[in-house]
Amino acid sequence: MSVVFDRVVVEAQGSRLLGPVSVSLTQRRIAVLGENGSGKSTFLKAAAGLIGPQYGSVRVAGHDTIDDETDVRRVVGFCFAEADAQLLAGTVGEDIELSVRVAKGRNYPQTTAEKVLQDFGLSLSTQRACHTLSGGQKQALALASVLTAQPTIIVCDEPTTRLDLRWRRDMIDVLCALQQQLIIATHDLDFAVLCDRVLVIDDGLIVFDGNPEAGVAMYEQLCDSRPSRIPRGCAAQQVRDEA
Ligand SMILES: Nc1ncnc2c1ncn2[C@@H]1O[C@H](COP(=O)(O)OP(=O)(O)O)[C@@H](O)[C@H]1O
Ligand SMILES: [Mg+2]
Questions:
Q1: CATH of the domain at 63
Q2: Whose CA is nearest to atom 27 of ligand 1?
Q3: Counting C-beta atoms within 10 Å of the first and last residue's C-beta, which end of the chain has fewer, N or C?
Q4: Structural domain that includes position 126
Q5: pLDDT of 203-224, one tens digit each?
Q6: Protein residue with its CA nearest to atom 24 in ligand 1
Q7: What is the pTM of this model?
Q8: What is the CA(78)–ligand 1 centre distance, in A?
């Protein structure tokens, strides 16, 4: 499996969000690091064919994300950073069925939602309303729904960001055990070092590409080299000074 960016530029409202980026992603697990607003989600969405590119091309398992949109949708599954954005149906069962229908069209496999939940190890009733789930349950259901469509490439945007320690460990275990190619954006540096390759994105450009430990170290140096974003003299500082 591969995702190949060739001189990709993504723009929105006259601004360049990403690129130019040329990179070939073939490793099993790839982590994308970068500050907030650096372009990680844009990169992931472009990799999954959800946006752009305005210039250049992205090929997913050989399919162009613009010309072969239907093939790309069949091959790649995307988990949004906000699970709420992903859970579109009212109940757990409906959500799983919907995901499969969207990905597979008319010929979707006759998988029951109960079996999906069982296979994934999620003890949830199919009748349960999605909005009543905890953050971890939502994230896990979103991933289970995506996997039901049997994609060969999974793209996950910050899969552990809002999770408690137990859910985080479970999510990392599940994602690392997947046979599919996995591309994640994350602020979870411990998760990043478990991957086979790390990219660091800064201001829409890939500024590091290689070994995970070296990538994490480079990202830490990048953050260390930049000034605080909360200005001195802010309210919290004044309270401390006066105390
Ligand atoms: N639809 C959009 N229109 C204009 N700007 C956008 C849009 N989406 C994202 N951006 C901007 O593009 C930059 C990169 O965003 P994003 O890829 O979401 O970064 P990250 O995921 O690293 O936080 C940010 O400055 C963000 O504000
Ligand atoms: Mg993001």
A1: 3.40.50.300
A2: 37
A3: C
A4: 3-242
A5: 999 999 999 999 999 999 999 9
A6: 37
A7: 0.92
A8: 17
